[in-house]
Amino acid sequence: MKGLGELERTVMEVLWAREDAGRGAATARDVSRALAGDRDLAHTTVMTVLDRLAKKGFLDRERDGRAWRYSPSESRESWVAELMLGALNETGDRDAALAHFVRSVSDDEANVIRQALLNLTRREPPA
User: Fold this and answer.
1) What integer pLDDT is reported at residue 127 of this predicted model?
2) Residues 84 and 77 sit within 8 Å (Cβ to Cβ)
3) Global pTM value
4) Which of 32, 51, 59, 124 has the fewest Cβ atoms surrounding its Cβ within 10 A?
5) Under a CB-based contact definition with an 8 Å cutoff, are residues 69 and 59 in contact?
6) pLDDT (tens digit, 0 to 9) for every residue of the chain, 127 residues total?
7) At CB < 8 A and 24+ separation, what contacts does 53-59 make?
8) What residues form DSSP beta bridges with 9?
9) 11 to 36, 45, 54, 63, 124: CA distances (angstroms)
């Protein structure tokens, strides 16, 4: 199960928000500026966290002159789904865990699950 530390999660949230806003990849300076209001972090700390996240596979990076531009390797939703599946793998009884989870969701969330399952069953079989 891929986990993130608190600072790593904060940096990922900045990059996911940029992606959601259609602003694309960010430099370490962009991330530092985005975090400046909330946290007093040295620019080198942000660079280290970005490098670590890239090495862990959370970020893709490409050269832009002397700087790197970073973008998330996967969406926030994909990462959360991976965490949920990892947690499900930790139980000895997946069926019981799934049933308990489904009983705990709101009506709106249950409708989302129903629609996702309906869409899954409507998919054409692979050729």
Assistant:
1) 61
2) no
3) 0.80
4) 124
5) no
6) 468 999 999 999 999 999 999 998 999 999 999 999 888 889 999 999 999 999 999 999 999 999 999 999 999 999 999 999 988 989 989 999 999 999 999 999 999 999 999 998 887 666 6
7) 53/8, 53/11, 53/12, 56/2, 57/2, 58/2, 58/4, 58/8, 58/12, 59/15
8) none
9) 12, 11, 12, 19, 39
Question: How many whole angstroms separate alpha carbon 54 and alpha carbon 26?
Answer: 13
Extended strands (E) in 1-127: 59-64, 67-72
Which pLDDT does position 74 carry in this prediction?
A: 95
User: Which residue shows structure tokens 């991976």?
Assistant: 82
Give me 14's structure tokens: 């900045």
Q: Which two tokens stand for residue 126?
A: 């692979």
Residue 78 to residues 44, 63, 119, Cα–Cα distance (Å): 29, 25, 18
Give the pair of three-digit tokens for residue 104: 């705990």
3-state helix, strand, coil split of the chain in percent (to 5) is: 60, 10, 30
Q: Measuring CA to CA, how many Å separate 32 from each of 14, 77, 85, 127?
A: 10, 24, 32, 48
